[in-house]
Amino acid sequence: MQDFVVLTGIIIKSEPIGEYDRRVVLLTKEKGKIAAFAKGSRRPGNRLMAPTNPFSFGQFRLFAGRASYNMSEAEISNYFEDLRADFIGAYYGMYFLEICDYYTRENNDETGMLKLLYQSLRALASNRFDNRLVRCVFEIKAIVLNGEFPGIESSDLLGESTVYAITYILKTPVERLFSFDVKPEVLEELTLFCKKICHRTFDKEFKSLEILENIE
Amino acid sequence: MYEDEWNRFMQTGQISDYLTYRGYGRNCHDFGHIYSGHIEYTARKSEEIQERTNAGFRSSYGDYNKVRTNR
Known about the structure:
The complex is a heterodimer.
Chain A: E1 4-17, E2 21-28, E3 32-38, E4 57-64, E5 69-78, H1 81-85, H2 87-103, H3 111-126, H4 131-145, H5 160-171, H6 184-201, H7 207-215
Parallel strand pairs in A: 3-5
Antiparallel strand pairs in A: 1-2, 1-4, 2-3, 4-5
Chain B: H1 2-12, H2 15-21, H3 37-48
Helix pairs in contact in B: 1-2
């Protein structure tokens, strides 16, 4: 009898394999980032067709094969339909997924990143926040969660409100992170600060960011 | 198919694929006069960045081509 595992997570990448299958990368609460094969998920009418799309969040039932996980069932609680309806939001979401793919590791405790990703996607979908603010919050918090935040230097020349906003992002738990708004001038400073720390921290060019910056 | 189109957009990152997903044809010039403001805006953006069919940022076969001797 095969041993099944039920994992809570989100699909961060999906690619076609063979004629009817897909290989997906999941960011899960229990096992960090893992890859799994969804056999037959590209067949018309297959029950895994929608759950194996990026942004699908829910519970996934997997069994361990000899060399990889295979997906047998999925119960999706949020497809982020609102986010898919807005193409700029979708690009932001794509960028967040790419950062998560870059930052997370297999069999590592990635609960913080998963929570951050989920809350950030909800904030993008809600339209209550400026997308640029959501991006700044996500970038700063992701860097903090991975222990690479360089701190605020006096040479950054940030205003008092911006420093307060950054400190708030650093100290607030992810669940309550999206509960504030900032003035346009603070957002400008915050964006420049994020650009600087991302350039220093990430040793990779994110393709989705390139597209996003072309579009905006 | 609906899910396939979304997946393709997530792989290529192209606005033309997004428009296909939303059901407005593969070519951004094919909408006629019936599209809404949002789609018009999306199509204009696609033209602005001079998107081409092969300008996608990810291979549709992901990392798998890298391990094959594809000469």
